[in-house]
Amino acid sequence: MNPVSPAAAARAAASATTPSAVIPRLDQPEALLEAMLLIRAYELRLSARSAQGGTPSTCTAVGQEAAAVGVVSVLTADDLILTNHRSAGHLLARGADPGRMMAEVLGRRDGYCKGKSGSLHISVRELGVVLTSTIVGGELSLATGVALSQTMLGRPGIVACFFGDGAAGEGIFHESLNLAAVWKLPILYVCENNEWQAFVHRRETMVGERIAARAAPYGIASATVDGNDVDAVRTAARAAIDSIRDSGEPFLLELLTYRLRGHFEPDDQAYVNAAELAAWQARDPIERLKARLLAGGGFTTGDLNGIDARVNARIDAAMAFAEASPWPDTSDLLTDIYA
Amino acid sequence: MNPVSPAAAARAAASATTPSAVIPRLDQPEALLEAMLLIRAYELRLSARSAQGGTPSTCTAVGQEAAAVGVVSVLTADDLILTNHRSAGHLLARGADPGRMMAEVLGRRDGYCKGKSGSLHISVRELGVVLTSTIVGGELSLATGVALSQTMLGRPGIVACFFGDGAAGEGIFHESLNLAAVWKLPILYVCENNEWQAFVHRRETMVGERIAARAAPYGIASATVDGNDVDAVRTAARAAIDSIRDSGEPFLLELLTYRLRGHFEPDDQAYVNAAELAAWQARDPIERLKARLLAGGGFTTGDLNGIDARVNARIDAAMAFAEASPWPDTSDLLTDIYA
Amino acid sequence: MTTITVYDAMAQALAEEMRRDARVLMFGEGVATKRAELLAEFGSTRVRNTPLAEGIIAGTAVGAAATGLRPVIDLLFAPFLCYAMDELVNSAGKLRYLSGGQFEFPLVAIAMTGAGWAVGSQHNHNVEAWFAHAPGLKVVMPSNAADFKGLLKSAVRDDNPVLFFVDIGLLYQPGEVPDGETLVPLGQAAIARPGQDVTLVSYAKTVPVCLQAADALAAEGIAAEVIDLRTIKPLDEAMVLASARRTGRVVVVHEASRTCGVGAEVAALVAEHAFDSLKAPVRRVTGPDAPPPASYPLEQAFVPGVDAIAEAVRALVRKLH
Amino acid sequence: MTTITVYDAMAQALAEEMRRDARVLMFGEGVATKRAELLAEFGSTRVRNTPLAEGIIAGTAVGAAATGLRPVIDLLFAPFLCYAMDELVNSAGKLRYLSGGQFEFPLVAIAMTGAGWAVGSQHNHNVEAWFAHAPGLKVVMPSNAADFKGLLKSAVRDDNPVLFFVDIGLLYQPGEVPDGETLVPLGQAAIARPGQDVTLVSYAKTVPVCLQAADALAAEGIAAEVIDLRTIKPLDEAMVLASARRTGRVVVVHEASRTCGVGAEVAALVAEHAFDSLKAPVRRVTGPDAPPPASYPLEQAFVPGVDAIAEAVRALVRKLH
Ligand SMILES: Cc1ncc(C[n+]2csc(CCOP(=O)(O)OP(=O)(O)O)c2C)c(N)n1
Ligand SMILES: Cc1ncc(C[n+]2csc(CCOP(=O)(O)OP(=O)(O)O)c2C)c(N)n1
Ligand SMILES: [Mg+2]
Ligand SMILES: [Mg+2]
Predict the structure, then answer these.
(1) Is the whole model's pTM more than 0.90, yes or no?
(2) Smallest CA–CA separation between A164 and chain C, in Å?
(3) Cβ-based neighbour number of residue D176 at 10 Å
(4) How far apart are CA D191 and CA D205, in angstroms?
(5) For the structural domain made of A30-315, what CATH number should be given?
(6) Which domains does chain C have, with CATH numbers?
(7) Is the ipTM of this complex over 0.85?
């Protein structure tokens, strides 16, 4: 017999799961804006490139930058993140290198997943972004186990699980919430309700307007907030995390936002109601933050242009890095299957 | 082209799905009691037999007879029923022949499913008891389709789908409710909350006490009622069905009851809290109905003994029929796979 | 003959069958959005979007099929079938049998799979063998526009549950489709190219690859027969075995992973029932036992190529010539 | 050596591994109720009941395995795996690969299957081949108490997701189990009985049936070698092929349905890699492509019996003697 105490096991395993890369501090308005601009620029650059052909398409979250940055900015380095097919915002806000992300999207060797993932399931373990799944609902099924490890191995971080309004239609959403409630797992369920589920409007898929209403039967606390207002998102996410830490129980945060581009590039959005789209374009989270900073935040147009320029330079460099990255070797086809 | 109108298609398909066997009228107290006694006697007879060995075991619903009889008694011949592994009550209340049911349990040729089902998935199409599944949640996944046929083919009946508190933990429960709400399907979801999910107490599996609370987020009306009081069940089920017919929308009826025997025969119930069991034994639905009939229903003990005797005679005959039924032929192994 | 893509061939099949039989309806995530022409012609009762929930999409189809409708469902990508296994396998595949024949399940479940879009193994995973291994189901996986149309129409008319797999790489391939009613019976393979030296057995996207390999081999004087299974279950054993007995050499080719794949079944059938005619080992050229990767060159390397097929044939022919 | 049942052998394996490694935990529907001795020894944090929801049971195990725990889950009966396919196949099997090797998934998923309890095909359905066909998973299916113990312990120690199938018919079979630490490595078949005339390849409940058939054949002068695969994936191809090359005659026997089953894989391997040694066709004696029925005599008829196996062997030996 060689008994291992849970604490010792935790120490042993900790190195492998505690985020080890540099996680940026996003607590100043400028940093928040820069993160949102970086996400936007990253997604538009890839979209433009794929429109020309020859580059794999992506699911962009243009219009949802405040949701991603708002939540991720209030997480600590100990917290873990699970995300899905529409992950660029979560990853970049957490500090992922846009160059390695682009390399992954292009299927290159320097991608975070050696090119095997492509855009749809990018995990970056050293940043605590684990087990990304493009199966809608996949991350919801895994978050409970990740949170169970956190509690059983005595780790401090909570688990933030990002998913869409569509995912809340999968049965596994319900199973996940129920187990998290019964086992008191420290999970922040973050539903980015962007009104779309691929080519189907959310209203076609449910009676009622709020995903958050689904938390109550499980005894799970919830809140719904304007997801296009980064400050509102931060405040709500902080409160949610406090609730998780105080109660030891999960929380469901619903962020009301909108997918401004199509489901998957290219997408002509012919099926989208033009007035609805226009109304949400007028609520663009980046423009709103910019306006706020200009109005009372002590920023000038010049300041903002400066941030834009920095971001564009980073994206240029990232794309150059990605394009310079070699293709995987054919032998890589058979690696990483078994441990 | 050979266009077929939906109405013509309905006529063509109707013969195959409208219940064609005799469905008993259960509207008098005596008939209700007799149905409940028949179920009890049926289950106890099979349990006693399987305790001796050599007879396949069953999942009994002893203690839940008021739930089955109460709901089934207010259905019309046009309505359809889906049930599960704990189905004897629903089947017998609907008028299934206990002899053919026992033959099925014993795996004999005269069973309703030629012996291929055994006790766990008995369907009787001619009685409108369709698509019985012993996969917990199975009936919930199928009920929506059955109800879709009812509406699209212009058939009058609603669909009553019986399931347990455990099944409400499966994600498919959530998917079923949501689709039924969005597509306005005429489904009476009947949850027999019997406090047990095989060897796990319901309280270990959920926060809160009511399955019915899970209907609200989908905009589905619900009610919770004493499932051991056959009159209360009938009243609630009638109101639920009226609601479905008036609104064209589904309804979730939760019946609070208790599984007085084990999950699957034999089961020593060592894991059951004795006080809880005793409390529920004291609320036995059959004893309650008997007491009511004796107190103010104009029945004498002799009347009730007469019913008991009739029921026992039927069960004796049923068992004799089942035992006399031949085994299937080995060639039956390969029939009924494809249409 | 008209030349149309596989996508359009399927659209024609669906429209024709919905026109013919009012009991046919179609639903799935985005079906009513993406198949706007069906929605326009048949209305929102028969062409429906659904919530994002494969389990209930499939379950609803199964329940509806048993009670008078003839649903066609689009489950998008084959890995999403993982959320619908209970409904497809335990209900559609078994409830006829378990009920002693009381129900029929005339439904078609469509799913896309295969390399071509560089989307990785949560979108690209060839799982047709799972459904061949499960009882009570039929499995179709065509290779060209005419068969897509003719088999989809037959699938809709079949009284059993049919899994209809669409190899992504073929979706926008044009092909000639006969004018007028086109029905291809389920369970019938086709000789895509006759030959007497070796039999290549394949289906879906690797059929054209086998044909290319056959071209290359012809130049070397090796006449390869190419059999397109078209239906995986029921498998046209008679045609496969007849060819194997004629040529004495068999190579099975598919993109799905090797272990317990359709190629294993074909090889086993040949090794059991055409053994006396065999002049050489039965070879399989298949995708590896790996998850298909996203990276384009790796994804391509996953799929059996012309060279690998031709080389497998050469080895067999060399062996005993 | 101590004689214990398969059930007790598994209980010992679980208790020993949980004692050895605090990261091992076990959960499932009724696990804490039914394994009261584990609950008593390891407490309610490490031995848990769950809600009735296979998807989240499996998903939780996968998420926990990737982040430091080593879960064992009991999913009860194999058909219920249909509710956990996404978690097992798309997550556990693929996320290591798709992440470029960032995660490991040391987990064991236990499920029962097979004839014996007359419960019908929604409880009894041998689907081990599905998981052999899916990438990134291991699949174990032992035939006797010692292997159940030794393989379950190895499965718990393995850093990959292991499907551990328990043939119901064996659960209360007694068998000798070595005293002290018992480890049986994954991926290693065993020669259950040596012989030189024919190779019977099998696993789980049909191994003892093959041994009985071998007894009967021995009386007729036919020496059958019986190979117990023990692990379905990775398959011990070397041992199977070596035996096939030695005997020149192979019969594969299992209870699962024939099409695309493990027997197809074994037959295909033999037909490809031991072809030159073959003296007769490769035969399969398997369950039919039907859902297992509940009725006892039909359920028995589903399972390959001694006579069918012996007759298959006789036909091969007759053929070329
Ligand atoms: C199980 C499954 N079903 C369907 C899909 C195809 N699909 C990918 S994203 C998507 C829409 C998801 O909607 P939502 O959850 O709201 O997230 P969003 O894309 O809006 O961020 C769909 C249907 C999938 N990847 N997985
Ligand atoms: C998918 C699935 N999981 C597990 C089981 C095993 N099982 C059969 S009945 C049962 C308990 C069901 O509980 P509930 O839904 O409350 O119904 P009850 O038995 O109490 O009537 C379980 C776990 C099953 N048949 N199907
Ligand atoms: Mg959305
Ligand atoms: Mg219950």
Answers:
(1) yes
(2) 10
(3) 13
(4) 15
(5) 3.40.50.970
(6) 2-177 (3.40.50.970), 190-320 (3.40.50.920)
(7) yes
